[in-house]
Amino acid sequence: MKSFSALLISIVVLAAPVAAQDTLDWDINNLDGPVSLLETGNNSSTIQTVRLVNDAEGEPITPANFTSKEDFEYNYSGNISSMEHLQNGYWHANLTTIQENTTIEYQLIRSDGASTTEENLTETLDIGNLTVELMNDFNGYVKPGEDVRLQANVTDAWNNTNEDDATVEAYVTNGTWTGKLGKLGYSPSTEEYSLQVEMPDHANSSYIIHINASASGQGYNKPYGSTSDVFDTYPRSTGKIAYLNASSGCDNSSFFTECGRNAEIETGYNMTAFEASDVELAVKAPLKNGTMRTLDTFSMDENSLWETEFQLPELNTSKYREKVSMVYNASVNEDQLLTRYNVTYIDYRLSDASENSVQQTEDFLMRFSIEEPFTGNAVDLSEMEEVNATIYDPNGDIFRNYSIGEISFFSNTGFYGKNVYFSRDAENGTYRLNVTTTDSYNSTKSFEQPFNVGEVSSTFNTTDEIEFEFMDLLEHERMFNVTNQKSANLTLNVTLSEELENVTTVNGGENLSLNASETENFTVVFDPVNKTDIDGEITLTDETAGFSEEIDVEIGEPACGLIDGRLCVNSGEWMNVTASERGTIEESFWVQDPREGNLSVTLAEDDTADVFTVSPSGFELNESQEVNVSFDVQEPGNFTGAITVSSENYSVTVQTFLESNVQSLEAAVNVPNSIDLGTVTTGESVTRTITVDNTGDLEVYSTQVQSSTFDVSTENTTIPAGQSRELDLSFSSVEEGSGTVELVSFTSEDTIYSTIPVSTTLESGYMGGDDEDDGANGFNGSDNSLNGSDDNSPGDSLSNDEQEESSGSGVLILIAVVVFILLLAGFVLYTSYIPEKGDPLYSVLGE
Fold it and tell me: How far apart (Å, rounded) are the C-alpha atoms in residues 330 and 271?
């Protein structure tokens, strides 16, 4: 339980003249809240206000009444300071409260050197459990009428914790006037209370602002606190509105008093005493609770006058009152001049334009206007939330009721309404029309207007209505009957409503003639010009008796998406198909002959992209036929086409649109960066194996290899998408040490050419000879014998003649034998030892 010592509010007035011979004739009067708040918080800035008046007349004492003999001071906690004048005799002390000291003494002293007279007033402050801190800095001037966001902190004075559940209110006063600015709301994110307010619009004035806080249910014994501050408004300069004109949207062209939405306004402002540094025009409106809000701000340009043009903002009348203020704010150094011009805002106007009487068997022309004020332009019903028209009969019961969707707009007059037919059975007497409208901002207007329905004697009766649906766009014939109730022949005039004109012919265009007391059948032909509903009336009138009857006509549009004569297609103008996967999409539409005759129908395709086929392409139509359309989705993109359905003189076209969102298929392979054939004897044939990866989305259905450097070949193979294959490349009679081969990979979409660098080390044989077929290792490939300079092998015997010609050849033969043995040993070693890369003999012997 939080507690502080209870401090009672007491006011003790002590009048203690020091010298009886001189009496002070001024009184210090204490003031009640909210002009002066004794209930304050600990360690809070507070403004305490008293009023100083003349004893006899009660006139305010201002600084002008003071001479050098008088002083007006206050003493708080031992500190004596001068009182400050607010205005009109209201004086204030500005101090910060201390919990231990609750007494403030006001002292009025007059001294003439010989004697001193005092007038004292003591007040006791009531310091509560809440500390209130005003976060705004009011040391400078405040613009009159400026929008300011008040911000305040409220804390528990006992433990200095934030109080988030207080009622915080703001007041402003200058002594003679006190106003409540409103209640401050709490923000958990900033832990502050705040409120957007409009400051007083009086210039060159001083005010005191009080922030008062109270809490309940928190265990406080003094659940309150307050803080105060003083602020001054800028001095006022002089200026006036030179002109205020409206080109449209207001009740007058100059200095208007009423305006509607989007009114076009131009204005000029004149500074008559000082030069302004800038002038801006703010358009403001009061909320429902009275708080002013700025709707828009416009800068004014300085010519000979300060001028601007603007469009009056549309006002949300569910939030704002129907008032708009144009506030001219001129800056002259530190001076702010405000000039305000108020206008009544008119959102829209509702007025009656109906007939005041009607007879039975006639239409009551219910008419009313919903229009922009001052322009006369009709407000579109899309801007209205609700329009309701109700007709009450003479007994007060609802006769007809129409909502917004049933209200028609008559463009020739600009009125909304309905033609309401009163049959001969309708009760005669006084009816009432009530129209209520509500716009999107919940602004509701209404009117109620009486009208009279007179009785009429009937001379004939007829069919009440004709109702059917068009089968096609050919003529449709219907019958209606009329009974002559008179004992004499009767002639009736025929009138068609606007909806039936040009599509309806009654009785071949002639008036209706009936014999006495007979019933006749008449023909009406409807010839539709397009595919649409028709809702109208055929009015038959006996001009002699002034009696008429209506036949209601309601014709539904054909149940066809496309129609020409007897040819009916149930689809719309477009057949739209969207695909995300490859494959076939089946669509269809129906072709019908509503008259169930025999039509020869053909279908023609306009399909340059070759993405759809139509089946069947022609048929004999008796009643209906389904047509299938197959879309072949393979490639991404948008594809348009058309299907023309034709028969005799009729033709309709179905447009096709295929949106294919399938992913593009990419052809790609990955091959080795290079091929090293190693050391190869010139003219030798070698085979190397490479791995080919199909990294694309398409199957490689065939491969081949080609080269301008090598005689190379490979097997033809397929490589499925995402898989790999090993290819054996056969190089025949290698003659070059480097070059390239090109692997060609064939797919359904693309052919891929992959170039691979090839390198090799070429060597000739160990024993060179003239025979080009000798191998690099010096052996004959067929019998492994040594190669010589002729066809004889070294093992063959020499002839006697040869021995005689080469007497010293024995030594050579011996050498040849030794060489042969060494070569034979080398051959054995070569065939049994396989060098690897890195071995010293690898570069010589190869693989």
Answer: 8
Contact between residue 526 and residue 473 where contact means Cβ atoms under 8 Å apart: no
155 in Cβ contact with 130 (< 8 Å): yes
pLDDT of res. 20:
36
Q: What is the pLDDT of residue 787?
A: 39
> In this predicted structure, which of 332-346, 571-585, 794-808 has the lowest mean pLDDT?
794-808
Token pair in block for residue 680? 């190869």
Q: Kindly state the greatest CA–CA separation across the chain.
A: 185
* SS3 label, residue 836: coil
Q: Which helix (H) or strand (E) holds 832?
A: helix 809-832
How does the average pLDDT of the chain come out, rounded? 84
Nearest alpha-carbon partner for 51 in 85, 79, 82: 85
Strand order in the sheet with 384-392: 357-359, 444-454, 429-439, 384-392, 398-402
Question: Going along 143-238, which residue ranges are E strands?
Answer: 147-156, 167-173, 178-187, 192-198, 206-214, 224-233
Task: Look at residue 470 and give its three-state secondary structure.
Answer: coil
**What are the φ and ψ backbone dihedral angles of 144, each rounded to 5 degrees?**
-60, 130
Model pLDDT for residues 197-216, shown as the tens digit of each residue: 998 988 788 999 999 999 98
- Measured CA to CA, the distance from residue 630 to residue 583 in angstroms comes to 10
The arithmetic mean of pLDDT across residues 665-676, rounded, is 92
HSE-up (13 A, CA, CB side) for residue 391: 24
What is the spatial distance between Cα 362 and Cα 426, in angstroms, rounded to a whole number? 11
Q: Given this model, what pLDDT does residue 362 score?
A: 82
Q: Letter for the amino acid at 665? A: L
If you write DSSP's letter for every residue of 704-769 in order, what string do you get? Answer: EEE-SSSEEE-----B-TT-EEEEEEEEES---SEEEEEEEEE-SS-EEEEEEEEEEEEE--SS--
3-state secondary structure of 817: helix
Percent of the chain having pLDDT more than 70? 88
pLDDT at 518 exceeding the cut of 80: yes
| CB-count burial class (<10 Å; 0-12, 13-18, 19+) for 281 | buried
* Angstrom distance (rounded) from CA 175 to CA 59: 14
User: CA of 56: how far to CAs of 26, 59, 797, in Å?
Assistant: 9, 8, 172
Of the pLDDT bands very low, low, confident and very high (cuts 50, 70, 90), residue 17 is very low
Q: What pLDDT sits at residue 565?
A: 81
Alpha-carbon span 417 to 583, nearest angstrom: 56
Nearest to 38 by CA among 52, 50, 48: 48
Of the ranges 405-409, 453-457, 653-657, which one carries the lowest mean pLDDT score? Answer: 453-457
Q: How many CB atoms lie within 10 A of CB 70?
A: 16
Residue 330 amino acid letter? A
In Å, what is the CA distance from 398 to each residue of 391, 392, 402? 6, 5, 11
